[in-house]
Design brief:
Length: 285
């Protein structure tokens, strides 16, 4: 299958790259004719999972855009002459600009009913962006394995491991070192600047996926792997299990929560089941 490598430049000058999978035919039974899919934290658009999803969706009649966000890889070049970007520096607050740029590219290609989505941190950003912007041509949101960025919840899951890191990051900010790097083990392993860590898990819960799910204004699907949500399991990712349970308890009328049996956070070996879960939901709307 031929794939188009595509590039957009955001209004603030950041170049983003992606892969566009054109459908072999259009399935008019779907609520959307294209899906924008942003990668997980520290990742990039060309991960094997996203390439496999792209090919599978295109074969079934849905255009798929695997797209970089400005937080691709851990550290990346930003706008020419500007500050560094990449995941270590990224704020969820910036995500609507990235989605708006990719939506513009799909409009140029004739798409008018678009779903926005993503995996892991990209899934959080899809929900946040639609809740904040209410993009007119977004027909649905597809959020795969988001974490719950809720301060009290993360504290309850990780205790002193989290609070010590958070306090260390706050101290860097207070002493004028916002770009000091932190290597973290919770809520997951990664590298952050102090400013980004405090921003993501701020005590005001500014990026809580459960809270923003209430305001997307369109059908919203949440998908999780059973293994990442299994408390005490070898492949548990606690913030994802917390998101799944909080979203189910919230019972927002326009949201659906589904779990792929046997899937871990990366859906290894369960790629087809993930694709079919999303496609079936888009067909039923």
């Amino acid at each position: 299958m031929l794939v188009d490598l595509v590039t957009v430049t955001t209004p603030d000058g950041i170049s983003l790259t992606g892969a566009y999978f054109a459908p072999e035919r259009r399935d008019d039974g779907l609520i959307a004719d294209a899906l924008i899919y942003l990668h997980g934290d520290g990742g990039h658009f060309y991960a094997p999972l996203y390439m496999e999803l792209g090919q599978g969706f295109a074969e079934r009649g849905l255009a798929f855009l695997a797209a970089n966000r400005r937080g691709h890889d851990m550290v990346a070049r930003g706008a020419p002459g500007g500050d560094l970007k990449g995941y270590a520096y990224e704020s969820v607050e910036e995500a609507p600009v990235d989605y708006a740029s990719w939506l513009g590219l799909l409009r140029e290609r004739g798409h008018r009913r678009i779903a926005i989505g993503g995996h892991s941190g990209g899934a959080v950003r899809a929900v946040y962006s639609q809740a904040k912007e209410r993009f007119d041509d977004v027909a649905a949101v597809v959020s795969v394995s988001p974490g719950e960025y809720h301060h009290e919840t993360v504290t309850g899951l990780h205790g002193k491991q989290f609070t010590n890191l958070y306090q260390e990051a706050e101290k860097h900010l207070e002493e004028g070192r916002p770009d000091a790097y932190l290597r973290t083990g919770v809520p997951w392993d990664g590298m952050w600047t102090a400013r980004s860590y405090v921003d993501h898990f701020n005590a005001d819960n500014r990026y809580s996926v459960t809270a923003h799910a209430a305001n997307t204004g369109c059908p919203t699907l949440f998908v999780f792997g059973s293994e990442e949500c299994s408390v005490g399991g070898e492949q548990e990712l606690p913030v994802c299990g917390a998101a799944m349970r909080r979203l189910r308890a919230a019972e927002h009328p326009h949201t659906t929560v589904q779990v792929v049996d046997g899937a871990n956070h990366g859906y290894r070996g369960r790629e087809t089941e993930l694709l079919e879960t999303i496609l079936t939901w888009l067909q039923k709307l």
